[in-house]
Amino acid sequence: MRWLPPFIWAGIITYLSLMPANNLPDYDLFHLLFVDKWIHAIFYFILALLLFYAWNEGNSIILKAVLILFVCVLFGTGIEIIQNEYTTSRRFEWLDIVFDTIGAIAYVSIWLRRRSLDFLKKS
Fold this sequence. Notes:
The chain is built from 5 helices and no strands. It is an all-alpha fold.
């Protein structure tokens, strides 16, 4: 049951990423501030958080962090490829992948920091 939240969240990301571009806001300020890119970072931050929550098996901390980061980046890249190949109003954008990665790295960093502090308190 703990895997349900990350799968639902991945479905929401997929749905929002593949909806026609004309359904999205198109304000100059929206583009100027890279709001859409920061939304990518937030979405993948949450995806990484949910994946860490779901995967509580006793594997290596570093291995777990690397694998979750890999899954997030691979998922984001896959979405970009699907947008480019199977939609008419969306295209592949490297900057989206960069911000997906920033969001995932942000949570992985927080998680690793928290784990290291927990380890230090126990020693």
